[in-house]
Amino acid sequence: MGPDLTTVAAAEDRGVDYARGFIAFGTERMPDFGLSDGEIDSLIDFLKYTAASGEYPPRAPILKWNGTVDYAGGAGGAGGAEH
Ligand code: HEM
Q1: How far apart are CA 15 and CA 5, in angstroms?
Q2: pTM, entire model
Q3: Phi, psi for 69 (deg, rounded to 5)
Q4: Domain range spanning residue 6?
Q5: Number of domains in the chain
Q6: Pairwise CA distance, residues 45 & 31, whole Å
Q7: Please, are residues 48 and 17 in contact by the beta-carbon 8 Å criterion?
C-alpha cells in the first residue's frame, strides 16, 4: 500500500498538482488506474476535503476517567481543560 494521504493536498512539499500526477500516471510502485479526468477531479476534491478536515499523524488520545479524551498540549475541543 502507499503512504497516508490525509493531508497530501495541503502539505507544503506536496499539494494538489503533485497528487494529481501520482493519480494520473502512477509510479513504479503505484499502479496507473486509467482514470478519466472527471474521476481524477473527484479524487482531488476528496483529498482537499480530507486535508481541510483531518490531520496526520494522528494525536495520541489520553483517556479520561469519564470516558472522554484529551490530547497532550492540545487546546480546543469541548471540555479540554476539565479534570
Ligand atoms: C484512489 C486510490 C489512490 C490514490 C488517490 C492515491 C494517491 C497517491 C498519492 C497522492 C501519492 C503520493 C503521496 C506522497 O508522496 O506523499 C501516492 C503514493 C503511492 N501510492 Fe497511491 N493512491 C491510490 C491507490 C494506491 C494503491 C491501490 C496502491 C497500491 C497498490 C498505491 C500505492 C502507492 C505507493 C507505493 C506510493 C508511493 C509511490 C512512490 O513513491 O513511487 N496507491 N498515492
Answers
A1: 11
A2: 0.83
A3: -120, 155
A4: 1-83
A5: 1
A6: 20
A7: no
Q: Which of 23, 30, 42, 47 to mutate to test the pocket of ligand 1 (most atoms within 8 A of CB)?
A: 30
What are the pLDDT digits (tens) for 35-50? 999 999 999 999 999 9
Could you give the 3-state DSSP secondary structure of residue 62?
strand
DSSP secondary structure string for all residues of 14-60: S-HHHHHHHHHH--SSS------HHHHHHHHHHHHHHHHH--SSPPP
How much is the pLDDT for 1?
A: 87
What length is written for the chain?
83
43 lines ligand 1 (CB under 6 A): yes
When pLDDT is averaged across residues 61-65 and rounded to a whole number, the result is 94
**Quick check: CB of 31 below 6 Å from ligand 1?**
yes
